[in-house]
## 1
Amino acid sequence: MIDKVLAIETSCDDTSVAIVDTSGWVYSVVSASQDLEHEEYGGIVPEIAARNHSIALIPLIEEAFKKASLNWSDVSGIAVTNRPGLVGALIVGLVTAKSLSQAKQLPFLGINHLEGHLLAPFLKDDNYSSPEDFGYPYVGLAVSGGHTSLYYITGLGEYQVLGTTRDDAAGECFDKFAKMSGLGFPGGVRLDHTARNGNPQAYDFPRSMLKEDTFNMSFSGLKSAGQRMLEGMGPELVKAHLPDLCASFQEAIVDVLIAKLEKAAKFYKVQRIIITGGVSANSRLRARAEEMAQRKKLRLVIPPLRYCTDNAAMIGYVGALRMARGEFSTIDLGPSPQALESDFK
């Protein structure tokens, strides 16, 4: 019988381990950031990410058990991210999970990282739980450095892709503009902070596909427009007007995300919406989403930051639910940079 599971997440540059049960209760979640290791390169270097996962993972597993006051006899399975993500990073987590599965005689299951994000609102701990009336169906916006998509969620394993970015992810767009404007890495966080002192109407950036009758999005044109504007202004002028530039660029992305989320909620006649993924930490996106939800009388859930960024708790919850209904992986399971077609209908 599956109850508590140990979960491992190494899809990108954050190493994370958690212990979660089938109710969504998080007994512990511990993570190690690699921001300092990648900062000098201005972005994530896959080889460095994989190497750091291999160093951090076992100590984090030991810390997760200690923090939860549990041991191996208290868990009944292992959940591990095996798709999508950086293949080298995924391999570290997957090989570790397989080795522990054999050593501890526990079943394991490979989990889709994106599915974890979509069910993250159901996680709970001493300081967070979703509203009592929150449940299926709902529309979810998953937005991060690698993914920007809208889903219609009706149950575990029941996810309909409504629309996605046709090119760059919103988080990637934030990071690239931050890098081009000299803010450095991690760009999205620094851009958000800088934009708080700026005027979002100061500069006119494009909002691609904003009014098109589709749930798809596009951000490559915005990124190119941002590059042209920065190059045309020059370093000194950019520095002098950086808060306004960041606020205006950010507003263009948020306008598109909010418009598409509102459109999807209306089309599917749902009263519940979520925003998840690393970009959901953006203060302007959160504020605009809350305003829209209040105006449209929608129930909005945005998990706390610890469950929005890449974390093992969301992987553990999905793993616990799926293993409880008899789903397990075999030892020949491999990593994948993409989700399986069967993951989303």
## 2
Amino acid sequence: MPKFSFSSHPYLLGFDALEQMLESSAKINNDGYPPYNIEQLSEDRFRIILAVAGFAIEDLSVVVEGPQLSIRGEQTKNGSEFLHQGIASRQFTRAFVLAECIETIGSNLENGLLIVELRRIPVNHVTRQIKIA
């Protein structure tokens, strides 16, 4: 089965950057760590919840760059010697592609869960007549 491509479809002009972003997001998120939920709180409010047990606030970063929300975690080694280590402490990057009408309004760390709050904002669609020369 051939792969669908935005750039090869005649009605989807200029979406090739979106296709590249989706592909890079899929490569970043392929290991399933850390687990996460996406909740819809109301028609225009959402939140992403990541299970980040053992991570402190200074170990985490939440960055929005263009339409991409990136959440990164990197713990510093504390030099402990473990008899058993069952709690994952590896670095991670989770990327989410946000629609133009979704904005990030805040984040907090609570009981080992990183909560990122999102909301939908109205988008003003402007209709304009194009003069034929």
## 3
Amino acid sequence: MKTLAETFLTQQEQNTITAKVQEVELTTSGEIVPMIVSNSHDYPMATVHFSVTVGLPLAVLFTMLIGAQFWIGSQNMWLFLAFFAAHSGLAFFLVSRSNRIKALFLNPKHVEKEVVNSALAAFYKEKLYKTRDENGILIYISVLEQKVWVLADTGINNKIDQKEWDSVVKDLTTGIKTGNKCEAICEAIQQIGLILKKHFPYQKSDTDELHNLIIR
């Protein structure tokens, strides 16, 4: 079964994005790396939250109906616990296999923190910090959360403030949420390229040091 990241873009869209990176990198020595990941965290509490939200009211309802019908008692604690275990277990099974349901129960503050931390970890894992001019830049897209983060290396940060990427993140996030994924990613690459080439113009000695698209 394919992951969220693997189904996020078609093969043709992946080829289009790769070509766009190669095109833009002919105008700047900066190394642009779009990265698609399925999720930035497992979010176990979201699964627990959904299980309790579904299991608790159903357990109460079934205890009242079944208990009264069979003269066990409409408030029988053991019957309630049995129904709660059964319904919450079923809910746990469903949400563990449905990213759409899990996404509804994510804590926004937790999500923001995990996406940033995961983007930072990916930056180092994929060795974006090892470019010759310290000018690698990661476009990190976490599919489950529909979140984007742009992270640049030291050479870029010394010349360009992180706030420069805010509009790129905003436009790309909107594009993803409205279904224009490929177009939005290509536009983000174009915008980043325009910013980078002012400070990091293309040089004949430049080589393609990093991946043009990463899917994890």
